[in-house]
## 1
Amino acid sequence: MRLIIEGGERGERQMALDETMLLLLTKDLIPETVRFWNFKPTTLTLGRFLAVKDWVNEEELRRFNFPLIRRFTGGGPALHDENGEITWSVAIKGNDLMKAYQTIAKALINALSHFDLKGEFSPINDIVVQGKKIVGMAGAIKRNSILVHGTFMYATNPEFMRVIKSPKVKEAERGEAKSRVTTVSLLLGYNISRSEALEALIEGFKSVFNLEDGELTDIEKEFSESLRFKYTNPQWTYLR
C-alpha cells in the first residue's frame, strides 16, 4: 500500500486530489494509498450534504479570514488548523464504508497510544478520548472503491471552533463545538509538534496497513489540477 507524506496546500488542491484518487482507484489506475497532509491556510470544510447557513458561523469565518471548502464526502464541519492538525486520507478497495471506518479507527487508536492516550471508536465516524472528539472521519464510495479522510488534532486552537455553528437541537444536547472536542496537546498538558504527531500517525497506520513510501503519479497531478475549479466555485461551496 502506497504511503505519501506531504505538507500544506490550499483546500481546493487537497480536495481535488482526494477526489481524483477515489476516481482513479475505481479504474485501478493507482494503488491503494494512505496520504498525510494538511490544509494551508487554516480552512473550514463542510460535508457534502450540509447547509452553510445551518453549520457555518460566517461572521466568525470572515473575522478569522478562513476559506470555506465543501467536501465531496459526507460528515460534519471540520476545522483544519494549519499549525495544529494533520489531515489523512485513505483510498482503498471495498464497498463497506462502516468497515473502512472501523479499520482506520484501529490505526488512529494505535497512533494515540503512542502518547499513552486511550482512544475509542465512537460510531459512526469519530474517535474520542475521555468522552471528547479528537478525530473525525468522512468518506465516500464510488463503485468498488472508498476514500476516507479526516482530522488528527494534535494542537488545534479551540478558539477557531467558533466558525462552526451547530443546529440548536444538537447544541442543546451536546454543547458548542468548542466544548465537544479536544487535542493531543490539551490532554497531555503540553504542546507536541507536528513531527511528533506525524511520527505517531505513521506508526499507527503501519500497524494496520502494509505501507511503502511512494509518490503521486503524473495522472493524479494532471487530473486533480483540472478538478480544482470545482472547489473554488461558489455554486458548489454554497450548494446548500
## 2
Amino acid sequence: MLKILGTAPLGKKRLDSGEAPDAKSPEAKRPRLGPLLGFVPCLQPLAPSPSTEEHDARVLQIGPYVLLEPRDGGRSYRAVHRPTEAEYSCKVYPMRSYQEAMAPYGRLPPHPSVARVAEVIQGDRSAYIFFPPGHGDMHSHLRRCKRLPEAEAAALFRQMAEAVAHCHQHGIVLRDLKLRKFVFADRERTRLVLESLEDACVLSGPDDALSDKHGCPAYVGPEILHTRPRYSGKAADVWSLGVVLYTMLVGRYPFQEAEPTLLFSKIRHGAFAIPGGLSPRARCLIRCLLRKAPAERLSTPGILLHPWLAGGGGATQEPCSGPSWRQGLDQVVPNVGQEG
C-alpha cells in the first residue's frame, strides 16, 4: 500500500576514495594505479533497486510517477509525473532509514541554492523521494571544461558558499561536501543548488564538534586525518569548500596522489601550490579556506564578505589586504590572517 505525503520538509557514509564516476559517461572506470592528474572517482556502495512490491516487473510506476532508467549505480532514477509529464529525480530508501535521511531537509527553511523535496511516497518497505530535475553537476561540468574563468567561478562559488552558510546557520553540517553535490538548476548553467543532504549531520545545539570521520579523501581536512577524537564539522566543511574553489580555478585537486597514504600525508601537512595566472584576491581566498589550523579558516559568513566574491572574481588585481573586509570579518572569524 502506498501513502503519498506531498511536499516534504529529508541523512551517513564512510570514508570513500573520491567522487563517484559519471552515471552516463562511458569513460567512468575504477581508480587507476598510476598518478592521477585529474579527478579521483569516489567508490560508493550500490543501493538496491526499488522493491517491486508496488509495481510489476514491466513498468516501474510509483503513484502518479513512472520510474525510468536508473542513475548513480541504481541509487536514484529519472522519473516522469504522468499527469503533467514533468521530469523529476527519484531516490529510494528503506523505510527503516527514511526518517533519518529526511531529517536535514526537514530542519532547513527554503533557500534558492538548496534542493527541496517535491514529494514523498511511502510504500510498505520503501520510501520514494522526488526532487526537481537537475541539469548536470559541477564535477561533470569541470571534467568537460577543465577549469573556469574567475568571473564565472566567482558567480557559481558564491551560490555554493551561500548554500553551505544556510546549512550551518540552521544546524546542519554537510560532512561529505564535494563538487558532485552541486547541481545546475538551469540549462544555461548559471544557477546551482546543493543536493544530496542525506549524509549531513543535524546538530542538537551550537556545538559542532563531530567524532565520526567520513567523506571523499580528496576533500577531507587534515584534522579529520589526525588521531584527535573530535573536530569542528563546520570548519571541515569550509576546508572542503576550499578544495572545491581550487579545483574550479585550477582544474585539479590541490592534493593528489594515487596511493591513499601519500595523499593523506600531503593533506596532513597542508602544503599545496597555486599556479600562476590567478588574481591575488582569488589566491587569498583559497589560502583563507585551506588553512591547516581549523580556527584560522574563514567561516561561511566570512567567505561571503571576501572581496574576490564582492568584486565579481578577477575584476581587480589588487590584493585583499584592505581594512574594510577584514574589519567585517572580526565579527565572524577573529583569527583570519594575512595571505600566505
